[in-house]
Amino acid sequence: MDKFGVGVIGCGIMGRSLAHSAQALEHVEVLRVSDLDEPRAKKLAAEVNAEYYLDYHDLLADGRIHGVFIASPPFMHRQMAVDAANAGKHVFSEKPMAPTLEDCDAMIQAAQRNGVKLTIGLVCRYHATHSKVREIVRSGQLGKPVTMMVHRIGGPWKLGTYAADWRLQRDKSGGSLMEISTHEIDFMRWTCGEVKTVYAIGGTYVQREADYPDVVLASLTFENRSLGLLHSSQVSAIGGYGGRVDCESGSIYFPHIWGKDVSIHIKTFEGEEIRTPISDIDGEEPVRHEIRAFVDAVLNDSTPPITGQDGRAAVEIALAAYQSVETGQPVNCR
Predict the structure, then answer these.
(1) Which of 68, 244, 281, 288 is the most exposed place for a label (fewest CB within 10 A)?
(2) Exposure pattern of 46-79 as b/e (b: 16+ CB <10 Å)?
(3) Tens digits of per-residue pLDDT, 137-196?
C-alpha cells in the first residue's frame, strides 16, 4: 500500500486530535470522518482534506480504509469497534475502552475473531514524565518499588471545555475513574505490575448532578506486594497532577506531570538528589507516537504496545474501586 488509510469516528476534541496527528504522519492518510453532528464532521473533514459521513457504517464500507479511530463517547465504543472489526478494519479506540467488562470482552473477541489489531488510546504511556518514571522503576536501579502514589485533581466537568451531559452518567462515560483517571490507573499498573486488590473510599460532594463519586481515594495492592494510592478528584479549585514512587534503595518524585520547568527528582538514601528536566527527554509528540505505534503494529503484523487486555485491566480496576466505595470492602481483581 502507498499509505495507510484511516477513518475517524467521532469529530469532537479527541477525534480532531487523532485526525490531525494521523495526517501528520508520512505514511498515513485520513480518508473519511464521521459524526452525527454534521457541522462538526464537515469542519474536520475540511481541515484534513477528507470526506465525511453522518453514518459511520458508510465509512466502514470504504475498502481503502485499513484502520478506524473511535473517538465517540465510551458507551458507543463496543458497537463501533465490533462493527469495524467485522468489516475487517483494525481498531484504535480512545480510552476508556468501555464502561463495562462485558463491552471490553466483546471488543477483544471481535478483533480476535476477525484477525485485526486492537489498541486503546492510553496516551500517557507516551508522555515524557510517565515513560521516564516507569523506565527508572523497571530498570531496577532503585530496587523494587514499595509504594506508588499519584494524584490527578481538578474541578467539575461544567467548568471545563469537556462539559457534556453523557460525562455525568457512569453507564455512558464510566465516571471520572474511567473518563479521566483511566490514565493514572494504567500508569500505575504499567509501572508496578498487575493489581491484586483494590480498597477505596469516596463520595459525591460537589458535582452532585453526576451519578458517581466526584472524589475517590483508591488503595491498590499489586501482585508483587507493592502498594499504590490514587487520588482522583473533581472537587478541587486548585488542580494538580503528580506523584512519587518510593523504592527499596531510593525515591522518584514528580510533583508535576507536565508544564514549564517540570522535572523528575531522583535520590538514593546515600546519594545526592538528581533532577531531570522533562524538556531534556527527547520524544515524539504523544498522540502522534501512539498512532505511529498502532500503524506500525498493523504493518509489521506485531502486537500493539497497548492491547485490548491493557484497556480492559484499567476498566476492571476502576470498577473494583467503585464497588469498594459502595460496599466498604476490598475487592479482588483478576
Answers:
(1) 281
(2) eebebebbeebeebbebeebbbbbbbbbbbbbbb
(3) 999 999 999 999 999 999 999 888 898 999 999 999 999 999 999 999 999 999 999 999
